[in-house]
Write a structure and sequence with these properties.
Two copies of one chain form a homodimer. Chain A has a single domain, classed as Pnp Oxidase, Chain A, CATH 2.30.110.10. Chain A contains two helices and seven strands; from the N terminus they run αβββαββββ. The two termini of chain A are 12 Å apart. Chain A has 135 residues and is mainly beta. The first copy, chain A, has a six-stranded antiparallel β-barrel with strand order 1-2-3-6-5-4. Chains A and B meet through β1, β2, β4 and β5 of A and β1, β2, β4 and β5 of B.
Chain lengths: 135, 135
């Protein structure tokens, strides 16, 4: 079961990039643009050309807490839309998404959402909510 | 003196949104889309409708360390471009940018860059560099 509403899933499917916040070795934040997939169970996979060689990979191995934001602006009138997903990340070095872009290498960062903050995506959407913990 | 190259300044001037990473009260990262201006001295001002009421405002007052990423993708061929700026933030509650968007309220988060990571913006650009400390 996904934590996301049908309107949020439609929105996420239409976005190509997300921005991933992690904690660096000095405890300061780092943010990078990333490609992503939403899985049927509501987890999110971050893919890349060589994820295991990246700073973000080392960051999540040290501190699993991450934030991912997917957002854009609909013009005329100016209407920002955003989904921020806070959660914990797991580094899966052997997983390769066969549906990823050409050149995507093995190594997936899988995010399990703990809290979702939605803004501007649907008029009567759930907004901010905490995700019930699952087994 | 700005830490950014002329090509980077051109790139930044063409972008409407950045994503700001901060450290939340529990030490976990948070990321939000924000509007921004680059000042002649290389500092970056984050503006908003009501910055002082936001979680990111309280975050930077508690822990000044932030990361800001500005990025996009040029299609055909797929070419991602990004500038990540890591630095420290100062909350300026009384400052109002008169050149900001209509509805922008007082309260500016000013970022002083400590490290800049450039990717894909210019062929012979400086890439990653640490900013010399200034008085």
């Amino acid at each position: 079961m996904s934590v996301f509403t049908p309107a949020e899933l439609d929105y996420l499917a239409g976005q190509q990039l997300a921005r991933l916040g992690t904690i660096g070795p000095d405890g300061a934040p780092q943010v990078r643009p990333v490609g992503f997939f939403v899985n049927p169970d509501g987890t999110i996979d971050i893919i890349g050309h060589d994820n295991p060689a990246s700073q973000k990979w080392r960051n999540v191995q040290r501190d699993a807490r991450v934030a991912l934001v997917i957002d854009d602006v609909v013009l005329t009138p100016w209407q920002p839309r955003a989904l921020e997903v806070r959660g914990t990340a797991e580094a899966l070095p052997d997983l390769r998404r066969t549906d990823a872009f050409p050149g995507a290498g093995p190594g997936v960062i899988r995010i399990r959402p703990h809290r979702v903050i939605a803004f501007g995506i649907e008029d009567d959407g759930p907004g901010t909510r905490t995700v019930p913990s699952t087994t």
